[in-house]
Amino acid sequence: MTVKAKKHLGQHFLIDKNVSKRIADQFQAHRGCTKVLEIGPGMGALTTFLLENKDHQVWAMDVDSESIVYLNEHFPALKGRIIEADFLKDNLALHFGTEPFAVVGNFPYNISSQILFRCLEYRNQIPEIMGMFQREVAWRIAEKPGSKAYGIISVLLQAFYDIEYCFTVDEHVFDPPPKVKSGVIRLTRNDRDQLPCDEKRFIQVVKACFNQRRKMIRNSVKALIGDKPFEHEFLTKRPEQLSVDDFINLTMAIEAVDKL
């Protein structure tokens, strides 16, 4: 039995075992996390190598019922830990309670950003995220301030995770081959338990600034605080020049104005 790749699910099955092993080897079990949830395992190209480490308890979740049947037939070691569900909607507490678990996978390109934002909701339970994305998306996530690729997703994820771009994967190792190259990244939870400012306001500030990324911060702030007087050292900068800490600083200053 094989599984047919479904375009509407963004499936591109990895067929190069060397690449699969190299991806699996990027997982570091950050903070001693041994439970690993693989998203979209398909026919288990990555699963095979994740299972080689007997210290890890691997779980697999896929929305494709055909893949679920395949995994149950070919991976008896996963008995009881193969879940047919949508990661974006599933109640993860049913499987992991409050225990930490890592998230790995060759993520479907069409929902990869959504998967990361879902992980962000569970950031205090997910110490590590490791997987493959469209290369440009992977670059954007891992990018540092000062780059044109640095943006909203970079700041929001880097607020809580240290991010490393691991390596690039060519198109020909997939069936069917995608039209773009892929990039493998690893996100490991940093020491920031929570923001020193209101998180919703922080997100609002970051989005407002990058939605006018060609303009100075001064223009974005006007839309957030109206006609209230506001002075800040960042007003003449552009959003890609600000680090996560800078955005936190800016948000706290705006919060102070909010109270006036």
Keywords:
two-stranded antiparallel sheet; alpha/beta; elongated; Rossmann fold; Helicase, Ruva Protein, domain 3
Provide a quick synopsis of the model.
This protein has about 260 residues and is α/β, with parallel strands linked by helices. The longest helix is centred in the last third of the chain and has 15 residues, at about 245-260.
The CATH superfamily of the largest domain turns out to be: Vaccinia Virus protein VP39
Order of helices and strands: EHEHEHEHEHEHHEEEHHH
Largest sheet: 7 strands, mixed
| Whole-number tally of structural domains | 2
Rg over alpha carbons: 20 Å
Describe the strand arrangement of the main beta sheet, using strand numbers. Answer: 4-3-2-5-6-9-7
CATH class of the largest domain: Alpha Beta
CATH topology of the largest domain: Rossmann fold
Helical stretch count? 10
Coarse shape = elongated
Please describe what this structure looks like.
The chain is an alpha/beta fold. The protein folds into two domains: 7-189, Rossmann fold, CATH 3.40.50.150; 199-258, rRNA adenine dimethylase, C-terminal domain (Helicase, Ruva Protein, domain 3). 33% of the residues lie in helices and 18% in strands. The protein contains ten helices and nine strands. It has helices at residues 17-24, 47-50, 65-74, 93-96, 112-121, 135-142, 152-158, 199-210, 217-225, 244-258; strands spanning 13-14, 35-39, 57-62, 82-84, 102-106, 128-134, 161-169, 174-175, 182-189. The strands form two sheets. A seven-stranded mixed sheet has the order 4-3-2-5-6-9-7, with helices on both faces. Strands 1-8 form a two-stranded antiparallel sheet. Strand 3, helix 3 (65-74) and strand 4 (82-84) form a beta-alpha-beta unit. Helix 8 crosses helix 9 (217-225) and helix 8 (199-210) packs across helix 10. The chain is elongated. The mean pLDDT is 95.
